[in-house]
Amino acid sequence: xxxxxxxxxxxxxxxxxxxxxxxxxxxxxxxxxxxxxxxxxxxxxxxxxxxxxxxxxxxxxxxxxxxxxxxxxxxxxxxxxxxxxxxxxxxxxxxxxxxxxxxxxxxxxxxxxxxxxxxxxxxxxxxxxxxxxxxxxxxxxxxxxxxxxxxxxxxxxxxxxxxxxxxxxxxxxxxxxxxxxxxxxxxxxxxxxxxxxxxxxxxxxxxxxxxxxxxxxxxxxxxxxxxxxxxxxxxxxxxxxxxxxxxxxxxxxxxxxxxxxxxxxxxxxxxxxxxxxxxxxxxxxxxxxxxxxxxxxxxxxxxxxxxxxxxxxxxxxxxxxxxxxxxxxxxxxxxxxxxxxx
Amino acid sequence: xxxxxxxxxxxxxxxxxxxxxxxxxxxxxxxxxxxxxxxxxxxxxxxxxxxxxxxxxxxxxxxxxxxxxxxxxxxxxxxxxxxxxxxxxxxxxxxxxxxxxxxxxxxxxxxxxxxxxxxxxxxxxxxxxxxxxxxxxxxxxxxxxxxxxxxxxxxxxxxxxxxxxxxxxxxxxxxxxxxxxxxxxxxxxxxxxxxxxxxxxxxxxxxxxxxxxxxxxxxxxxxxxxxxxxxxxxxxxxxxxxxxxxxxxxxxxxxxxxxxxxxxxxxxxxxxxxxxxxxxxxxxxxxxxxxxxxxxxxxxxxxxxxxxxxxxxxxxxxxxxxxxxxxxxxxxxxxxxxxxxx
DNA sequence: CTTATATCTGCGAACGTTCACAATCCGCGC
DNA sequence: GCGCGGATTGTGAACGTTCGCAGATATAAG
Lengths: 342, 342
Hints:
With about 350 residues, chain A is of the alpha/beta class. Chain A has 3 domains: about 10-55, 434 Repressor (Amino-terminal Domain) (Orthogonal Bundle), CATH 1.10.260.40; about 70-170 and about 305-325, Rossmann fold, CATH 3.40.50.2300; about 170-305 and about 330-340, Response regulator (Rossmann fold). In chain A, about 45% of the residues lie in helices and about 15% in strands. Chain A has 13 helices and 12 strands. Chain A has a 6-stranded parallel beta sheet with strand order 2-1-3-4-5-11, sandwiched between helices. In chain A, α6 packs parallel to α7 (about 140-150). The longest helix of chain A is centred in the N-terminal third of the chain and has 16 residues, at about 85-100. At the A-B interface, α4, β1, α5, β2 and α12 of A face α4, β1, α5, β2 and α12 of B. The structure holds a DNA duplex (30 and 30 nucleotides).
């Protein structure tokens, strides 16, 4: 209030105070090697005394970079931003945070058709890179991708089923192994995988592979309870579990490819008087909040959205020529649904 | 690939093609009134032919604006970005989207102590405005706020308990009314409010007020089942519900201030053999995914994160001098927990 | 003591826009 | 017929930084 708002200090002000030229200030603060250590200290001191910060707008203009990361979240046609998967939201949030930590701003968009988005940003050139969250089977989208990529624009994908591109995924093989090892340690003898393979959801397939591997390592035959398409994932899980019971399969535990299916399965088991965890162990993947409130509470493998977001940002911003393909560690969260009472 | 990447066209290129001077291009495209309609058309045509877009960096530098919106999500000390309330995430996402739609980028941060953030952005001046998501009782934070505000920097708050500032909240009074009206229509006779009043959570208090008003309008006496502090909201709900049963209060329905409490209450009722919805109706607020999977599925009042995000951005960016205080509509979602079978 | 070399710093320009101001054109009234 | 105001457009500068290049200083070698 009193005194009014002072003008923001510029590099000229710092230069004057430090007794050097203005470009020297720039060099000192941007970490250029061609600067004497003594000068740098002097400049830094002056900058701090004045409360100086580099004006990113000017720096970016001159440098030719945008300092901006575009993020597109793929959602179904007509979906509002509110109705997407909670994990995608958490991922979005952590991408934004990771970008901010590296001094990048984010331009976020929810899109049913990624290609529109790609075209737009490609032309407008408003972002240095693009992070895509979600899975699409949309072929034109992949074309736009390659176009972006060949222009030197960086793109990273969460869970991409397309092998030409940079991606980041959960360590789904480890998830499968963790699930099997936990179930066996808890006293179950024949865990079965619940989920569909060979769908665009590569991550599900990978979880199965981890599961199968661990089963064989324990001298057991993998077994699969395939799901069929339904309106919701819960419904898929419900149906698959019901079928399992009807056919009287010889299994005593289920590893569902995602929590939503696991929750559906829990309902089906309850309806058929199969008591979880006594008669049947159930474990999922995703660590949905819902799993904390189901009855019984759901054991699950938790992905790490914070790590995943950081990895995505890193994949986009670090311009190593090598393709970035990172696995983000997962962790086991034990709740009642696999606690076979002694 | 072939031909390499062409240089991005500038306003000089457009000017040359349209046969006007460069600043005229700027005027034509920025909607300045001091321009002949014929000229504007000529310029726009040339711009489209060349695929020209204004370089935001240069425009912002010259204009003195940042084109950036800072968003801070307040979380508890040590919390990672991943562990915050799902609604806050949804809100964050929709704020980012709403900002992007208005051509603003977002700088997102998760902070336990908002004052650090305020100070940082205040000095660095990297954002035109600030959106704060979350509730804090931290007094120093409010000081920083006022400072920002008096410097002409715009700030908007989700659910602020501080009356000097712009805020956006759910229409909590309507929520209370909706809950009561629904419960009465469903055949319950004496619904009770479950939650604590006079806490920093103004929104809870407002929901109670709406509830009480609707009760009186129906000729009923409001009733309150106060919660006490516990590690989690579920636990608060569980305890409050247990006490309600022990004391044998004459009630047949509960409106919980949030879904987490409602879910806790559901557990307590189940443990005490009070059958929901037959003996007791339960309704919450938040529309957590968890409510879809609880047993029975939870009737709830759903806030609208998309609308809320848009309103927050509007409050920050529209520089009317009048304080922006907006109520975002809520909607009733009926599930089994209030479906008293006939 | 001089020259070559490496290390550091200053100078000027450039990035692409918007803004203040001056210049031009037009029609109209005296 | 000349000047004058309003509507448009052009001119020049400025926003605050980074970059290329030349100049300066110090250190080492001949």
